[in-house]
């Protein structure tokens, strides 16, 4: 029979393990700190401190990661225990919510709050990129390369030839503007807080941050473009994507409308103001980059699931063109850069066991099945 820890001892154990785990994450916190300082220096050099976006994410990010996702995680764990165990459920629950497991999840929440600052830096830098480049310089070149690669035709025309119906638009908009965010940030939460993801945790989070920095800031700033939705506004040629935008305008005012969000972004850009997820840049695509990253990691776990994930990557890449957010090459380059980031991380960052083995009531913190087997 396993004897539980007294409550004060549990708190001390949670605190000690939490401190240990936070120290283990020092490298990730250092990346956040360096990136934030570099972002502030960039804003200061451009005299663009008004483009700062650090306060914008506080409420929504905290609510999502400290309330919504944890509630769903607890419900999922309880359902899993009830479904898999007809007896010894109390023991399974105690193991699932052991001090080690709670400390691990809390360390993940600490890191997620650090990533809130990271995302604020990303948006701040993105807001300031048009100031640094004096506008969007590369739309014509990128659109012409896109047409050249697709047999002299802008690729959205190929998509609309087979999927130019309003119900398709509605479905694609929901996926791109809702499901994509839920999927990617729930995966981030799982990797940060679940011991089951421990072997890839550091490598995944380092790659996650690299995607935002290299794809979303560095390359985006060097080859700044606005994308098809804003092509006419930045090049003076509204006709090239005019028919596409006229079709997408059918959804103005509807939930998840791409055009409504594009109008919101342009209004902020035109006024030199910041807002939630503000900033305009098309090349390369972070949307495609993040789902590519998740597909690569999922393939390590299961090749069949990885294949399905890469099908989803193709769908998101096509969706980004369909909704006039991106040129097709934005997705191609975004996926290629993420592949290089992933391969480099596999060589440079070893598997991460996170916690040393410990004997006693909390020796196994991963899953209830492993805990019961150990008892």
TrEMBL record:
<feature type="transmembrane region" description="Helical">
    <location>
        <begin position="61"/>
        <end position="82"/>
    </location>
</feature>
<feature type="transmembrane region" description="Helical">
    <location>
        <begin position="331"/>
        <end position="349"/>
    </location>
</feature>
<feature type="transmembrane region" description="Helical">
    <location>
        <begin position="276"/>
        <end position="298"/>
    </location>
</feature>
<dbReference type="InterPro" id="IPR052185">
    <property type="entry name" value="IPC_Synthase-Related"/>
</dbReference>
<keyword id="KW-0472">Membrane</keyword>
<dbReference type="Pfam" id="PF14378">
    <property type="entry name" value="PAP2_3"/>
</dbReference>
<keyword id="KW-1133">Transmembrane helix</keyword>
<dbReference type="InterPro" id="IPR026841">
    <property type="entry name" value="Aur1/Ipt1"/>
</dbReference>
<protein>
    <submittedName>
        <fullName>Phosphatase PAP2 family protein</fullName>
    </submittedName>
</protein>
<feature type="transmembrane region" description="Helical">
    <location>
        <begin position="174"/>
        <end position="192"/>
    </location>
</feature>
<feature type="domain" description="Inositolphosphotransferase Aur1/Ipt1">
    <location>
        <begin position="144"/>
        <end position="343"/>
    </location>
</feature>
<keyword id="KW-0812">Transmembrane</keyword>
<feature type="transmembrane region" description="Helical">
    <location>
        <begin position="305"/>
        <end position="325"/>
    </location>
</feature>
<feature type="transmembrane region" description="Helical">
    <location>
        <begin position="204"/>
        <end position="224"/>
    </location>
</feature>
<feature type="transmembrane region" description="Helical">
    <location>
        <begin position="26"/>
        <end position="46"/>
    </location>
</feature>
<feature type="transmembrane region" description="Helical">
    <location>
        <begin position="102"/>
        <end position="122"/>
    </location>
</feature>
């Amino acid at each position: 029979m396993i004897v539980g820890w007294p409550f004060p001892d549990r708190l001390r154990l949670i605190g000690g393990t939490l401190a240990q785990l936070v120290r283990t994450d020092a490298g990730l916190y250092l990346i956040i700190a360096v990136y934030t300082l570099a972002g502030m220096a960039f804003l200061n050099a451009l005299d663009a401190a008004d483009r700062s976006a650090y306060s914008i994410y506080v409420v929504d990010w905290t609510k999502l990661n400290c309330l919504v996702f944890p509630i769903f995680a607890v419900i999922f764990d309880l359902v899993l225990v009830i479904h898999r165990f007809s007896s010894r459920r109390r023991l399974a629950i105690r193991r699932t919510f052991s001090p080690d497991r709670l400390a691990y999840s809390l360390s993940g929440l600490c890191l997620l709050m650090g990533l809130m600052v990271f995302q604020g830096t990303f948006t701040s830098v993105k807001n300031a990129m048009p100031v640094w480049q004096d506008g969007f310089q590369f739309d014509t070149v990128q659109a012409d390369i896109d047409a050249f690669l697709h047999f002299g035709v802008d690729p959205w025309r190929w998509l609309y030839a087979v999927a130019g119906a309003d119900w398709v638009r509605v479905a694609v908009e929901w996926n791109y503007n809702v499901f994509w965010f839920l999927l990617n940030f729930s995966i981030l939460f799982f990797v940060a807080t679940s011991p089951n993801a421990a072997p890839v945790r550091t490598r995944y989070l380092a790659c996650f941050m690299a995607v935002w920095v290299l794809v979303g800031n560095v390359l985006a700033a060097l080859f700044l473009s606005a994308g098809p939705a804003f092509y006419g506004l930045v090049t003076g040629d509204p006709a090239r994507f005019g028919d596409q935008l006229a079709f997408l305008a059918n959804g103005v005012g509807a939930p998840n409308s791409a055009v409504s969000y594009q109008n919101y972004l342009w209004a902020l850009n035109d006024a030199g103001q910041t807002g939630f997820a503000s900033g305009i840049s098309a090349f390369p695509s972070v949307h495609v980059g993040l789902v590519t990253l998740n597909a690569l990691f999922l393939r390590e776990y299961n090749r069949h699931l990885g294949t399905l994930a890469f099908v989803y990557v193709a769908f998101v890449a096509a969706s980004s063109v369909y909704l006039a957010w991106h040129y097709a090459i934005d997705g191609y380059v975004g996926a290629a850069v993420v592949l290089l980031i992933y391969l480099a991380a596999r060589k440079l960052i070893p598997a991460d066991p996170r916690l040393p083995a410990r004997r006693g009531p909390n020796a196994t913190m991963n899953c209830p099945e492993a805990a019961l087997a150990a008892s």
